[in-house]
Design brief:
- By secondary structure, the protein is of the alpha+beta class.
- It folds into two domains: about 210 residues, D-Maltodextrin-Binding Protein, domain 2 (3-Layer(aba) Sandwich), CATH 3.40.190.10; about 230 residues, Roll (Dipeptide-binding Protein, domain 3).
- Helix content is about 25%, strand content about 20%.
- It contains 16 helices and 19 strands.
- It is globular and about 75 Å long.
- It starts with a helix and ends in a 22-residue tail after the last strand.
Length: about 525
């Protein structure tokens, strides 16, 4: 009788023009989306898309996690290494880590120092498509004198190690030798589709193009998570995100930008939080391309770009206008004074660089028109809208901007898969560039970090920046680091590898029933163990 009555109710709803919810609220199950990037791998060593960070924070094997204030918290280690506790040698070249006893992988296998040593061998295998090789090139050796001790030996003193190795602030995690080994080739490993980790959650399914499923890890050393399941929905269109948040098919949507960041605040039954992110949105050049290889042209285009209008119309209150490539949340951020929007000055600078305006209004040099091909990811309105504004700004001074829309997966794909950013198939590209705990620019603006060896998609190279950055990395003196970082930021600013628009303020919207969610610059979640809905 009950089943018949429910069936009758469903028929009445359909006849009335309604429909039963596709995905009703389920206690202790969180369905979320983070940005609008697709995922081709779940292995953070190989991934480039933004969602890999929050997913790895939930599932990965990390030495250190960070509090919402940025304080390092021992996770798989018993203490944070310092010089005072003997964890850092006097010369800054040796870091000793002491691992927790009794820790298990999410499949129940024991964790030990052998896994850490194995991960080092994977990361230094030149045949692996490691997204960021830079941290591993600094190391001379990783040794494991016993099951619970790991020693990092650096080629030179390295003061910023907490941000690069096995922490929730880095795109690394310890890899399980018993799953991946004994060989170290990982490009085609089955593990990439369903990693085994040591976080509060573990992966159960990777349905490509659809979703990623997780469940509470029964072997997690800190205890059982309050959430039973997490479903990451691979939605690449922000309007779909908004609709599913509105209908209850999504419980949380993070990293919202543009007009929808305002609209989600009006949805009944939803809460929002705004967090300063370390990500800088802008138009980044490929300085090796002929159209933008001259820094004089890049400086002119910066004056020709109305940053105020972009921040007002695109960020809509969810961005901090700035000029530096370093995020303002880092201790060594330099607040460079804002530049005015000055199209007349920009035009004069291009004239001086030999780009003269013709009868058709387009600038040419040696008969070649000044055309800048700008790549943007598809399905993301803020990028499309920003590209339109820049198109109009530059058109006023005779620069032709063409907008090339790429699929999300092609835009962010790794170098080996022909990714647009990684292979440099653009004069300019609109995207958000990430930062870390420190102002070191190793992975984004040094000569050795061109893809696939880093994220220097600008192909910017200044030996002076490299020298300053090396000194910054080796200094354990905060005051000295601040001075070095300021000099680096000024040099990069002068070279104009990109036009910074704003530092993103991340809006997250969620079902009011969600508890324990405390995102910050240093963590996507706060403490994932405390999440519940």
């Amino acid at each position: 009788m009950i089943a018949r009555a429910l069936a009758g109710l469903a028929v009445l709803l359909l006849l009335a023009g309604g429909a039963l919810p596709a995905s009703a609220y389920t206690p202790h199950v969180l369905r979320f989306n983070y940005d609008e990037d697709d995922l081709s791998t779940l292995n953070p060593f190989l991934a480039t898309a933004a969602p890999i960070a929050p997913l790895t924070e939930l599932t990965g094997a990390e030495f250190v996690r960070f509090s919402s204030s940025g304080a390092p918290i021992p996770e798989l280690v018993t203490a944070i290494p310092t010089k005072s506790n003997g964890g850092i040698s006097a010369d800054g070249r040796t870091i000793t880590w002491h691992l927790r006893h009794g820790v298990k992988w999410s499949d129940g296998a024991p964790f030990s120092s052998a896994d850490v040593n194995y991960t080092y061998r994977v990361a230094t295998n030149p045949d692996n498509n490691i997204t960021n090789r830079t941290p591993w090139t600094r190391l001379a050796a990783v040794t494991a004198p016993d099951r619970y001790t790991v020693i990092f030996r650096f080629k030179a003193p390295y003061a910023l190690f907490l941000g690069d190795y096995f922490s929730t602030a880095s795109q690394t995690c310890v890899l399980p030798e018993h799953v991946l080994g004994p060989g170290t080739a990982i490009n085609q490993a089955a593990y990439n589709g369903l990693p085994v980790g040591i976080g509060p959650f573990r992966y159960t399914a990777f349905n490509r193009g659809d979703d990623v499923e997780l469940e509470a890890n029964p072997f997690y050393w800190r205890g059982h998570a309050k959430l039973q399941r997490i479903i990451y929905k691979m939605i690449t269109d922000e309007n779909t995100d908004f609709t599913q948040l509105q209908t209850g098919e999504l419980d949380m949507w993070a990293l919202i930008n543009g007009a929808l960041a305002q609209r989600v605040r009006t949805l009944p039954g939803k809460g929002t939080t705004t967090t300063l992110g370390g990500i800088i949105s802008g138009l980044y050049f490929n300085v090796t391309r002929p159209a933008v290889s001259d820094p004089r042209v890049r400086r002119a285009l910066r004056f020709a770009t109305d940053q105020r209008a972009i921040v007002a119309k695109i960020a809509l209150g969810n961005g901090l206008a700035q000029r530096s490539v370093i995020g303002s949340g880092t201790p060594d951020y330099l607040a460079l004074p804002p530049l005015p929007y000055d199209s007349k000055r920009a035009a004069s600078m291009l004239d001086a660089a030999g780009w003269k305006r013709g009868a058709d209004g387009i600038r040419r040099k040696n008969g070649v028109p000044l055309t800048v091909d700008v790549a943007i990811p598809g399905g993301y309105a803020p990028s499309a809208n920003a590209a339109g504004l820049v198109h109009d700004d530059w058109g006023q001074i005779g620069v032709e901007l063409t907008i090339h829309v790429w699929s999300d997966s092609s835009f962010f794909a790794p170098s080996a898969a022909g990714g647009v950013l990684q292979t440099g198939r653009f004069d300019g590209a609109l995207f958000s560039n990430g930062g870390g705990l420190y102002a070191n620019v190793t992975n984004f603006y040094t000569c050795a970090s061109f893809p696939p060896n880093g994220f220097n998609t600008d192909r910017f190279c200044d030996p002076r920046v490299d020298r300053l950055n090396a000194q910054y990395e080796q200094s354990f003196d905060p005051a000295e680091r601040k001075k070095l970082a300021a000099s680096m930021q000024r040099l990069i600013d002068d070279g104009v590898p990109g036009i910074v628009f704003y530092q993103r303020l991340f809006v997250s919207a969620f079902d009011n029933r969600l508890r324990g969610y405390h995102p910050s610059l240093f963590s996507a979640w706060g403490d994932p163990l405390q999440l519940d809905i």
